Amino acid sequence: MRKIIGLVLMGLAGFLVTTALLALVYVPGQVKKTPLDTDSYTRLSGEATALPSGDGAPVKALSHTVADGAKSDGDVVVFDTFTCLITDPDGNAPDCVDDTNTGEGTKLVTASTDRFATNRKTGMAVNDQKYIGDATPHEGLVNKFPFGVEKKTYPFWDGLLGRAVDASFEGEEKVNGWNTYKFVVDVVDEPAEISKGIQGQYSSLKTMWIDPRTGAIQKQTEEQKRVLESGTTVLDLDFGFTDETVAANIKDAKANDSKLGLVEKLPLIAGLLALLSAAVGFFLWNGARGNGDSDVRTGRHGDDGDPARADDRSVDVFGDDDATRSRADVTGR
């Protein structure tokens, strides 16, 4: 039985070694990918000053991002994003309104849609027409950073400029107690189409707090200004993720961190279990084999190493103390 158990444990060790290798080489590449069922809502709030009145007002924004699973594949994910920015004078405005139904004091500031594709591992834009069709090509990162974020400068897409700008690493900071990497995008007085058919200058100071393991944006703030060529400010915006959005992002980050952490530890865990199983299995198997050899040597062999003949063995059938008779004595031979 010990021999059988030993063999089973050594077989288990082989299985665990295979598991450790798969967890080290194959599994991370399959797990560390942007999901194809993404359907996320990001809400922002803040203050804005805009023409024609020039008065300041509370604003809120919604960004709804959905993955197009039918167009996506194992390497690339396709997204459709709808963004809406409205005034929110009493704090009770809906997520968005159209320009013909503004409600009580609520007005549409901007609304837009965007279609883009990104690499599921690196987060970088992919501009193959089989994914995005005739949509506007993008550059750099668009809606998230790569898995395993590095402390360096990344190119990040700016939709108003229509190109990527630098997102510079500015250190590590805690957000709701969760460690993040802080990146800053600083665009100053860039020529741009600040509204449809209207040229001017555009500035944006965007700060993003990123989960280092998944690359997801946990928190974001932005100070944006659009100015006509005459110097008149068209839009002066200061807003960021709502507290509820930040809290939900951190909750997701913690859950994803636990899953990815387990994947990263799995090779070590499986490797240690493999060594333990192999050691115990070999001990049991070798011990059982050794006991079997000893029985053969001491109980089933004669002095010269050959199996003893039955009629040469001494058997104390009478229980004499003085002498032991052979089987030949008993049979009279």
Write the layout of secondary structure elements.
Layout: H1 2-25, H2 27-31, E1 39-50, E2 56-67, E3 76-87, E4 108-119, E5 125-126, H3 129-132, E6 154-158, E7 163-175, E8 178-195, E9 198-210, E10 217-228, E11 233-241, H4 243-299, H5 327-331
Antiparallel strand pairs: 1-2, 1-11, 2-3, 3-4, 4-5, 6-7, 7-8, 8-9, 9-10, 10-11
Unreliable stretches, pLDDT < 50, 5 or more residues?
A: 24-30, 293-303, 307-333
| Nearest-integer average pLDDT | 79
Q: What's the count of strands?
A: 11
Q: Write out the strand line-up for the largest beta sheet, numbering strands in chain order.
A: 5-4-3-2-1-11-10-9-8-7-6
Shape: elongated
Question: What characterizes the major β-sheet?
Answer: 11 strands, antiparallel
Rounded to the nearest angstrom, the radius of gyration is 37 Å
Beginning-to-end CA distance, first to last residue: 43 Å
Kindly state the percentage of residues in helix. Answer: 25-40%
User: What percentage of the residues does DSSP assign to strands (E)?
Assistant: 35-45%
Class by alpha and beta content: alpha+beta
Integer count of domains: 1
Give the SSE string: HHEEEEEHEEEEEEHH
Number of helices: 5
